[in-house]
Amino acid sequence: MAEKKRSRQPNGASSIYLGKDGKWHGRVTVGVKDDGTPDRRHIERKTKTEVTKAVRAMERARDEKKLRKPGQSWTVKAWLEHWVENIAKPYVSENTYDGYEVDVRVHLVPGLAAHKLDKLEPEHLERFYRKMQESGSAAGTAHHAHRTIRVALGEAMRRGHVATNVAEIAKAPRLEEEDIEPFTIEEVQSLLVEAAKLRNSARWVVALALGLRQGEALGLHWEDVDLDAGYVRIRKNRLRPKYAHGCGDNPCGRKAGYCPQKQQTRREHKSTKSRAGRRTIGLPDPLIKLLRQHQEIQEKERIEAGTDWETKGYVFASPTGGPLSPNTDFHIWKKLLKNAGVRDGRLHDARHTAATVLLILGVPDVVVDAIMGWEPGGAARMRARYMHVTGTVLKRTAQQVGEALWGADGRHLP
């Protein structure tokens, strides 16, 4: 029996018909184009059954908001480069952008560039992460690349360029959490003795006693310190410097950071972004005394520098008042550990140490969270991460258990 000729469907309804070319065709209205005209998608199959199945699948995708919108067919390379420069860069912090940019340029584009964005599959990503690690990248590096492409594909999905964020499905590289051992009280005391010999010695006391992050300590301004009231407000973060060449038509042949006429292209500090990060911390009396001495020494440096002094208000400044370099600060820390005869450790381990001291002292959790600047939602996880159970705590707990079971004098022993 011959098929009926194509009949006109109501506006917006899908249509299925046999074409003059002998193939079956389907037309599905999925929305409106940028110019206001209906967006009708065309499907072509050999049989009516096949085209009907394809039309119904497209209708379901349309109704579930999972249909890619018309227009440019992005490759992974084109989308990532567009996303990082035009979408991410204007809205994220400088440090976050730097991480995204390195992941895109160094890892993601070389490894995934030719894939069509809407054809990318979870298995492509999982094989890519494995190849990264087989080529020598650390699991943490591969994990960071995973987080970056997950954010980029999430934006592509919100804009209708892909139906699914396959990075949400792909298994991220497994990370083994490092077992970090904080410095002991004896090691801290050795570090403080050696730090007293250095310029800006209070900088290291602040790290070990208050647990400030590097950016928070180097971004500290005198306007945020009230020594009479005995507190400090954390409101700014020092950013890593970034430079451009200033040599113009006579290139120096060096990297931008070593150019004799280099120009700073990044602001020195930014405001602390999270509410928990913006916090007020009480100062121990010995630290107040030390900061007063530090203030007096800095005033003498200001007088000696004369017109070369930069009036920027940094608590920990260069000999002419400018901001300290995070890279130089790190190397001073490493030298401090060596000179104090203390085992090697990360600068961030000073923060672990401060948190552990708070645990030993039995400071309430809510106060610890406020001092450390932890967000309420993740505070419990951060305490578990930072506040290591030390021998002191274990011994005190064992003693309390013993007293509860056998009495303080052990008279209930069998």
TrEMBL record:
Domain Core-binding (CB): 74-157
UniProt xrefs under Pfam families: Phage_int_SAM_3, Phage_integrase
Entry-linked CDD domains: INT_ICEBs1_C_like
Domain of life: Bacteria
Region of interest called Disordered, as start-end residue ranges on this chain: 1-20, 258-278
Stretches with biased composition (Basic residues): 267-278
Gene3D superfamilies: 1.10.150.130, Intergrase catalytic core (1.10.443.10)
Gene source species: Streptomyces cylindrosporus
Boundaries of every Tyr recombinase domain copy: 178-399
Name this polypeptide is given: Site-specific integrase
The UniProt record lists the keyword DNA-binding: yes
Assigned keywords, A-Z: DNA integration, DNA recombination, DNA-binding
